[in-house]
Amino acid sequence: MLAIQNLAVDIQGSLILRGISLEVGPGELVCLVGRNGAGKTTTFRTIMGYLRPVSGTIGFRDKSLVNLPTYRIAQLGVGYSPEESQVFADLTVAENIELPTWTRKGGRPAKERIDLAYDIFPKLRQYAHRDGDQLSGGERKMVSIARALALDPQLLLLDEPFEGLSPAIIPSIIGGIASIQKLGHGILMAESNVHHIPEFADRIYVLERGEIIYQGKPGDTYPPEVMKVVTGGA
Amino acid sequence: MTSFFDIVLGGVFHAAVLFLVAAGLQLVFGVQKIVNLACGSFYALGAYFGISAVNWAIAAGVPPALFLPVLVLSGILLGAIGPFIEALLLTVYKRDEAFQLLLTFALVLMFQDVLRYFWGANPQQLGDIATQYGKIVVGTLQVPTYNVLVILASIAIALGIGAFLQKTNFGRILRATAENREMALALGVNVRVMYASVFTLGTMLGTVGGALVVPTAAASLDMPVELVVEAFAVVVIGGLGSMRGALVGALIVGLMRAAAISWYAELEMLAIYLVVIVVLVFRPAGLFGKAVE
């Protein structure tokens, strides 16, 4: 569904991605693992069209995403939850979650999409009328993921969904990701610590200095060069 | 007593018009992050175009009672230039603020010549339209009906914009875009369309403001710059980007100006700028402004 080939991205003269290739199929949870600065966020921002690649292709359901404006990429069905959640403070939780149903019409009815988003994180229902700036970090993350889901995307990009959250809340985020995957959405998730990867992930790619140095199934043992870079900086 | 009342009424009338222009400025800044100096030109253009529209209406035999709607309509129609002006701004969205100010100032100069070309260098005035609306008499107080109608129209527009921003999905998308353009894009918001719409709405607020004021004052080539100066005072006092700030700022500037004119006319601009200075010293972000992040 998502197929990236030989993607190279240059930011102000330095090559941040050096020809990476990866794939995400429908219903797959794929993790992009690497330490800070490895190029995970750059990969996501390039898929979303904020950055233009110097070379390489990004295919999404037989369409090329390269050179499309960001809003078109979203409307094609790519949902994005950035690392900082980016919940609109000026809107309520309910408005945040409903917004994608106003911008991407068609497909499933708005009510169905909104209900589905709340079903993933039922706790959000009680916060529906709070403003976006009256939430904890974990709640903001839930709103951000639920909002991306309300776009009714085939593919979801989650940039470090556990980063900065209290350990108590992480299981409910993992639970949400599992339910989204069961619904058949493909998910590409970034993570800096290989030990935080959900065990139900289908595949991991390890990114180091803009290159994919390992690809395989999640497990307990990884080659030493992988362990060196992706155990949370320890 | 009567004179004090006249000052307040004059001040509120001026504030009503000033609010419209400042609201346009705030809307455009809030969403597009561009300080649009050309709002003063839209105001002047609205005034001149309003004169032509009313003259046309008189020639067509439209009854005087409908002149106010004719003026509002002419302002709204003129707002159609908005998308074309906004297209020019495309070149400076990603550039330094200095370029943005230069471009919108260049627009002020260009519109100056547009006004001169179509309406000539001499000030233009409408006949006695405002007095045809008569006066409302309450006890010993006399109030020109036209001025009251303009104040009411401005209040209605303020409430309308408030409801539009708070209660419609388009308004919510607009607020989201103002707060975080990148995230709005990632949720499928066509920001180009948003910018063009906001700019057009901002233009209309300016042109309607100019059209409404013209029955009570002459339209002249000094209008754009005079108004930009006052509108700036309004947004500095109220806080850049805040609608409530535009309302309170316009009231303060309108009342200060009216008071200064009647008591000591030489202080007209100084009085306004004293308030600006006090606000800048004690609340640099303005009364309703958020500190810039």
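qc> The mean pLDDT of chain B is 91.
qc> done
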